Every structure is written in C-alpha cells, then in structure tokens.
Amino acid sequence: MTDRAPVLAVQTPPAGFDPYVDRVQASPVRFLYGLNPLAKLVAPLPAMALLIFVRDAATPVAFLLLSYLLLFVGVNFTRRLAALLLIALPVGAAAIGFGFSLWTDAARVDQSVVIWQLGPWTLYGGALAVGFATGLRLASIVALALIAGLSTTGPDVVRASVQQLRVPYRIGYTALAAFRFVPRFGHELEVIRQAHRVRGAHGGRGPFSAIARWFGYVVPLLAGAIRHAERVALAMDARAFGAHPDRTERHLVPWRARDTVFVVLFWIASAAIFWFFFPWGLA
Amino acid sequence: MTAPERTPSAGRLLGPTKDAATAAPLLRVRDLAITYEGGVAPAPASISFEIAAGEVVLLLGPSGSGKSTLTLALNGLIPHAIPATVAGAVAVSGVVTTSTTVAELSSRVGMVFQDPDAQLVTGTLLDEVAFGPENLRMPLADVLDRAEVALRRVGLWERRSENPDRLSGGGRQRLAIACALAMGSPLLVLDEPTANLDPRGIEEVYDALAELVAAGDRAILLVEHNLDAAVGFIDRVLVLDQEGRLAADGSVDDVLRARADELHAMGVWLPVSALAALRLRRAGFALDPLPLTPAELHAALEAAEAPTRAVLRTDSPDSAGSGRIGPIPRADPENGTPLIEVRGLTLRRGRTTVLHDVDLDVREGEFVAVVGANGAGKTTLIQAIAGVVPPPRGSVRVGDPSSGAGHRLDVGRTDSRTLSSRIGFVFQNPEHQFIAHTVFDEIAHGLRLRHLPDDEVRERTEALLDRFDLRAKAQSHPFLLSGGQKRRLSVGTALVTGGLFTGAPILALDEPTFGQDRARADELLALLRELNDEGTTILVVTHDMQLVTEYTAHTVVMADGRILRAGTTADVFADDDLIERAGLRPPPLRRALRGLTRHPELARLARFADLPGGAA
Fold first, then answer.
1. Looking at the structure, do residues A155 and A187 belong to the same domain, yes or no?
2. Total structural domains within chain B
3. Structural domain of residue B101, as residue ranges?
4. How many CB pairs lie under 8 A apart between chains A and B?
5. Backbone phi, psi, residue B93, to 5°
6. Which of B110, B163, B446 sits opposite A200 (nearest CB)?
C-alpha cells in the first residue's frame, strides 16, 4: 500500500496544533496507537463522569496514577509528553488547588489545623484539603482525556465515527475540512485588527469600547469566512464530494477484539477503584 | 518562458481530426446565456462553441464579460450549486449538464480555481489527490494509481506525505491541478489559476501546464490574464466582449495576431509583448506577424528595419534614465533630508528575524516599489514605516512639515492617531479596513476623529468622494461596492486625514493588485500616479514587475530581510544579475528588449511609456 514515512508529532513545525498529523509509527509496546479512537474515548468516559461528583483526594490520585501508567507505557516517550505530564499538569493542579483553598468558605471546613494566619484571616488545613482535592479531581479528568488525546489523530476520530458510529461521511469530512479554516481565520483576524488600529478605530479603553471594537471585527471576518466557505464548498462539489452515500475508505479503522478488551478492562479497573475507595461515604 | 512552444495551429488541426467529426465533441455549448439571481443582463449572453479532445483553448474577455461564470457552468456548478437562470445548453461528451449532477460531471470536467487555499480539504498531498477518486467510490488500488500518476505529473509525488500547508502558493496550485487530473476527466477547466501567485509560483504552474499540454491527452480551457506565460502553448482563442457575446473564435494567429488592435480596444488584456509591438508599429517598425512573446518580439525587432528619424520619437535620454514620465521628482536626491528615514531597522517575528539592519531613504514625492520573492520582508518593511508593526524606537523617522521644518516623527514612539495623519496604509484586502456602515461615514470617520466641525467634515468628505468617483455610492454599505470601488474607497480612507491636512501625505500599499484583473490593476495604478503627481509620496509592495516598471520611479529590491538595492527603477531592472539574485523575473518587456543589437536605443528600455509611438 502506501509507503508513507511516519510524521511524528514532534517533527511538526511550531505552527501549533495540526489536526492532520499522520498516525505515529511505534513499537507494539506503545499499544495505545493501535487501538480504535472510539475505544480510547469510551473507556475512560464513565470514570470521568463519576469523578465530577467525587470529593476525596484518594480516588483522583488513583485515576491519575492509572492514566499516567497507561500513557507512559502506551505512548511514545517524547519531551513534549514529559513536559505535559510531569510539569504542566502537576503545576496546573497545584495552582488550582491553592486557588480553591483560598476561595473556600472558611466557616464550613475543618478548622483543627491552622496553616497560615494573616491578621484576622486564617488558612485552615481543611480548606487546603478541599482545594487540593478539587485540583486533583480536575487533573485526573484531564489525564484520562489525554489517553485518547495523545495517541489519536483528528482524521482517525472522523474515520472511526464514520465507520463505527455511522456518522454520515459528509458531516465528518466537512468537519475535518473546517479545521483548515481555524489558522486562516486567526491570521485574518490579526490583519483586521491591525487594519482597524491603523484607521484609529480603537475608540478608547474600557470593556464597552472593547466590545464595540470586537463587533467591528465581526463583519469583515464573517464576510471573508462566508466567501471562503463557499469557495471550498464549490471545490469539494467539483470533486464529487457527496456523490454517493459512501466513499472509498483508504484507511480502515477497525474495531477489533483488543478494543473491546481494552474498554472492558478499563471499566473493571474504574469500578474497582471506585469500590475500593468508595468516595461517597455515608456520613 | 520554459514552456515548449508549439506551432500555433498544429493542435487545432490535430485535435478535431481524430475521428472527432463523427463522435460527439468533448464539450458543446449551444446559445448559452446565464443570468445570476438578481442580475439584469446575462453574461455570457448566447454563446456557442465546441471543444474537441486534446485542444488547448484560451478564454479572454474584459472583466464582467462572464468568463468565470462560463467556467462554472461547464461542470454544472451553475445551476446545480449556484442558482442562476440558464438558457441554451452545455453538453459534456453528449451529456447535458442541467439533466445530470455535478458529481456525475466531475469525472468529465476537472476544475482548478483561482484561490489555492480554498481547494484544500485534507491533511496530506496524497489524501488530497485521493479525495476525488474516493468520492467516486473507485476501488482502493485504482485510487492509489490515479493519485500517484497525478502527483507525478505535477512533480509532487516525493512530497506526498506532507501537509499541503507547507507547499508554496505555486505548489498548492500544482496540487490543485493534480487533484483535477485525478478525477480522470478529459477536459480540464482552469479559472485564473495564477492570479493569486507570485512570479515564481506562476512559472511553476505554467511549467506543469506546459507538460500537460505536451502530453496532449487532455483538452484544456484556460481563463487567464497573464497571457505572456500562456500564449506559448495555446491552440485556439475564444474572446467574449463586454456584453458577454462571443466576439472571436479562432487560432492564435487569426485572433491574437490579426485582430490585436480590435481586442485591445475592447478592453481585452493582450500580452505585454503584443502591446509593445502595436506601439512600435505605430512608430514605424515593420513587425508582421505581430509578436506575442518576449522571444518573438526580440526576434522580430532584430529582423525589422528601423524607421526613419522623423517618425521615431524616443523620449529624451534624461527622462528614460530617471525612469519617470510627467513631472520630475520634487526633491533633488542630493539635497535636503529624506521624508522617510529608516536606520538600522531590525524586526523579529517570533524567533525569526524578518528584517536585518535595514537602511532606507525615501524623498518627498517619490513613487517607490518594494519588490522581492515571498518572505523577503517587503510587507514588514512598509508596515514598520507606517507603524502598523511598531518599529524599534529611533529606527524609522518620518518628516512632519505640519509641525515645522525639520521636525521628525519617530514612528516607534508615535501613537496611531498622529501617525495616521501622516501615513495612510492600504491593506491587501480593502474589506479589512472598513469600519463604518456607509461610504460617507467611512471617509468622514478619520476627520471626525480629529474633532473637526461638522460642516468641514461634510465638505472635505464630499470633495474626496468626488475625487474618487464614489459620490453616487455615498449612502451604500462599503461591503456592497464593486471590487474597484472598494479599492478606491480604501485608498480614500487612508488618504483623507493625511493629504488634506499636511499637504504632503504618504501612502503605503500592500500588494494592491493581488488577485485582481489587469483592468482593475491599471485603474488603481493610474489613480496612484495621479495622486503622486499631486505630491503624495507612495510606497507600494507588488509582485507585478511590468507594473513596477510602468509606474514607479524608484525600486527597492529585497531578499531575506535585507535590501539588495534601492535605486531608480530603470537602473534596478537593467541589472539582470540583481533581479536573478532576488529571486525575481525581469518584466516581459525587458526580456524582449535587452540585448537588442539592431536597435541599441531600445535595448535599455524596460517601460512601456518610454517606447516610441506612444503619442499616436
């Protein structure tokens, strides 16, 4: 078939997020790449939903460890992965945790431990516990989402939804084509802002003039967007897009036994964690 | 051009002879008239023609004659995707377009549009080319075969796994041609495929097209205003007139060579070499048959007798040397401080340095072109001068006569409102600059910002509307103007606060002719020349070398963020080595005239206006 060279995420230019990067070639140990994108999305879904209602710290930590284990084994170890999992996520969790502990109503937490006192204001250990539980909860949800996010490409998600979920391909591929619009509009917006600034159209400071300013960007941006979308639609029509109820699929994204195994195992593991910690104490 | 030149009439004879007389022609258009919804007159209006297998046909016509509309009707996009009233019929291989679908027609007529970005759907070149065949539900092996053949034909097979975003404009347009080829259609329709490209991209696309033509397996209908590149491999020319009727249909010899005067009068753009030859004929040169390419003009001039002195009126060597017609530059280049002074300007965007230590002087009243390959830093330079991108303090200074002689604005420290009263900046797309709901308010905006009394605002705005021929549109929404009107309005808004206050405004324009047809480009440049004659200093970034040589007195050549040369346009374009190093191409007229041995007085010229025969 095609002897295409692997394009790794790390090789992409610093232009930013590329939804089209090819799937990564990796050793069989990096098993996450070989799974159906839908399996990777469906497996952590129950755990992510239930984590929203969890209040303790142990359950999120358990799921955090589970996702980290899967990611470090199942995904190519790159500098980007390390930075994301070992720096960005912990720092984010800590920041949110600290923020929430300041925000928590001090009257409603355990006041037995005093961490910090500033005049009449006291930071209690209870508040800190509540805050960091929240931070960990969010971090664990993000980590679970990264299982699919770091091992799946945009086109594969579209292909899997067309092939397994029976999403009409016209919708799936149009959505994919729409990804191309994003950087284009970003650039166009930047030019429009420059052009309006040159006209002296900034109209002053403050939130209201900012809103007025943004409304001024909308008309030229929309005019350009509609024209561009029409042209893309014509070009797609001219290449027989939507001619038949289905189309030749060069890349099959099958649902195999290992996908079922992965989903079932993940659900069992999730259930076990929830059963073991049972974070909804009767108290 | 690198295009292999075919004898103009050979294809015409070859095409229809192959048992085409018996079978249905590839394309048959009968009494076709198309009126858009809400349109008044049809364009095209009642035209009939046929295209046989393997023919290469060029479609010409002034803007508004319905060329693009016609191309959209050939594969059924009109009326299936774009609502319009269609009279008459288009039949492709005997199939009438109105009675089938665009998808069905897509394997009979391949389309290539003007904007390469608007034709991309997927993430790799291979996926992109395979997209069409996949939609046709072809078996996997066939899809890959077709994709490979198509990509190889445009020379992109080696890059098949890359994201199309990483291709140059020319590369992306070649990809669009490959995508059309992959549909397997015997007829290829290209609607201004090079209008959005720089000179190098245009050359790339024409190299690819020339190879296609040489293979001879596809009929091609080409709408193009860049005739200098196309004319080498055309079999036949169709011309639509202003009313959308078929004005000419015949071989290159019969139409372009024999009826050039008539076409020119009709507003059809001719190759620069043909226009130059028409003018030289008036000056007494015997140029018959009419040369169409730079090479033909060169050869014809070498063969032609020089006219007698009485007829030949070359302009004085002085004006040819300074490369300027009309008033001589106001400021003596040797005396006085320059109006714009750039010193050691270095600009970074992200981690890359876009401008390296640039020095430049622009004097009052100059008309300066900034040229260079893509990514040379042209736009950034004029943006820094106009303060659109803030330059480092002290690196760009602009004279400000309104606040006393010798006073200079440091662009890096000046707020945008003050700056806009000195320098107007016109963006590539005029729509980006519009901020008001009527044309009147658009012009008045800049004056109101300066808290002028209402009477004065009205008076000045109306004067400017008259000046730019927009008075009748004063209450229209700017977005509803025609393309040419939008462009004039954007120039007007950039000028209104500057020119009328200080008397010596500066206008900077970023590729104002990009994606426009020749008539509109000419109209704009004529307007700029008028403004320049009235004292406006003009800086313009452009890819169009002939335009540069025609209109500007000075040229700045940039490459890789540095200025290679800043000098008079005539000097710059006389230096072929410099042009080559900058990744540019000499303008067609220069290519035709350089190295002429028989008429040395013509060999130095690069501008149309300097040719003899202009007064006629």
1. no
2. 3
3. 1-108+187-193+224-268
4. 177
5. 45, 40
6. B446
Per the CB < 8 Å rule, is B122 touching A20?
yes
**Which residue in B515, B499, B519 sits closest to B507, CA to CA?**
B499
The number of domains in chain A is 2
The predicted-structure confidence for A128-155, as pLDDT tens digits, reads as follows: 888 888 999 999 999 999 999 888 888 8
Q: B417: nearest CA in chain A?
A: A200
**A222: domain range?**
169-237
Question: Strand B352-362 relative to strand B340-349: parallel, antiparallel, unpaired?
Answer: antiparallel
Whether the CB of B165 is below 8 Å from some CB of chain A: the reply is yes
| ipTM for the whole predicted complex goes beyond 0.95 | no
CA distance A7 to chain B (A): 8
Q: Per-residue confidence at B328, pLDDT binned at 50, 70, 90?
A: very low
A12 has pLDDT over 50: no
Which strands, in side-by-side order, build the sheet including B27-36? B47-51, B27-36, B84-92, B95-96
* Cβ pair A235:B137 closer than 8 A: no
Place of tokens 């050869």: B299
Q: Which of the residues A173, A199, A230, A231 would you substitute to probe the B interface, choosing the one with the greatest number of B C-beta atoms within 10 Å?
A: A199
Residue A148 lies in a domain: yes
Q: Is residue A229 part of a domain?
A: yes
CB < 8 Å to B445, chain A: 199-201
Least confident of A96-110, B101-115, B363-377, B567-581: A96-110
Q: Could you tell me which residues come within 8 angstroms of residue A27 by beta carbon, excluding any fewer than 6 positions away?
A: none
pLDDT of residue B451: 83
Closest residue to A199, CB basis, from B122, B166, B493: B493
Between residues B15 and B551, the one the model is more confident about: B551
The pLDDT value given to residue B31: 94
Beta strands per DSSP E along chain A: 114-118, 121-124
Q: Do A235 and B113 touch (CB under 8 A)?
A: yes
